[in-house]
Design a protein that fits this description.
Blueprint: E1 2-8, E2 11-17, E3 32-34, E4 44-46, E5 51-54, H1 60-66, E6 67-69, E7 74-80, E8 88-92, E9 105-108, E10 111-117, H2 129-139, H3 147-151, H4 163-173
Amino acid sequence: MLEQEDYGENGTIKITDYTKAFTIAKVVEETLELKPEAEEQHVILKEEKNIIDAPLGMTYETLNKLLNCSQTPKYHSITESSDVERTQSLNLVTDTSAPVATGDTVTVGTKIWTFSVRGDVDGDAQLTVNDIGVAKMHYIGVTALTGVYLEAIENDDLEGISVNDIGRLKLAFIKKIDDLYSDLVNEDE
């Protein structure tokens, strides 16, 4: 606290300066990286899109072990209401043994990453006939998927959605391939 008296022409002026206490917060860089073993698990970080590509069946618990974060990650899952308007909301994940679904998010500080689960086109954390139907509807132009839902269909090295992508979804669904990252299963085994 600073107090000063100044005797000017018009009398006495008292100047009082009360300095306020403040705390300087340490700025922590918000980083999210994958550990080396994530590649073996088919987890891919697409930094330019803020997307994490994950395989079907991966749980939050497993994913948490593969992430290297500067801050504790917070996971949110999308739930869709059953009302006519079909509104969606994000809910904090409390059951880490649950599988990650397309559209779910992880927040590190203020940075948000969205999950794209390969094969889970409709966001229910499973590969079902519905996912194949939604992919076909997009392919023929009846519906238009965007973002992580579009990423969930792409299963080959070609640009955009191809008939190969839909074929691989079908093969994975009928268990002719183990997962969307593998080659055809040998039927002699």
